[in-house]
Amino acid sequence: MGCWRGPSTVLACLLLLHPLPSPACPAACRCSSGEADCSKHALREVPQSLSANTSTLWLGYNFITVLGPQSFPPLPGLLLLSLPHNHLGLIHSQALVGLGALQELDLSNNYLTALTPETFLPLTSLATLNLGSNRLGELDPGVLHALPQLQALLLQDNPWVCSCGILPLWHWLSHNREKVREKSLLLCRVPEHLNKYPIMAFRNESFSQCQETSLSAQHYITFLIIGPFSFMASIFFCTFVGSIIVIYHNLRRESHFWRRPRICRGR
Length: 267
Prior knowledge:
The chain is an alpha/beta fold.
């Protein structure tokens, strides 16, 4: 096939002979139209050669155990991140930095036991969070407060500990019932007498004993401040009083000595 002369035709021929490079796609992934499917490849970490234009990333059914502070390459346009059925047990507080556009995050069917609010602070656009089928016994409601756009939350099939520690989470769930999905599967695991009891069925009176005996964080801080201060003040007071008593006794002894009658011997 020949090429006609002229600037436009020459450029067209050059493009045919040397096509523009396609966006980066890791060898373990299948990529098309901003979507990268890296699932079911026994990956132990997030591929670093992903295109910055990736909007959907599938990483399910791998062996990723930890998300560290630099686990993800720059993905400013990522909208959906799916990480189910890995061996994920730890997410660093800086792991999701740079994913501010993310709208849906699936962390279900992993080994997560605890989450911190700092981890989710970068996700200001997140609308759907799936934490189902993990090993969560409690969840700091600060995690949920850090997600201002959250519309759908899945927490089912976790070993929830229905003691006083779950009260803050229950408060959040009670005030955001419309955001909680699969409510019927949100069940207590322990204590034994509450096994399989639905968390959403609790009422205020269920936590009456907790509310009577629990102390707020402000109370603990007050005790921590007043306790050492009182101890130091008592030591200072005792030292001061003791010094006054010693000085008093010394002065009294000296005054008694000078007042003692003297015996003069005649020559």
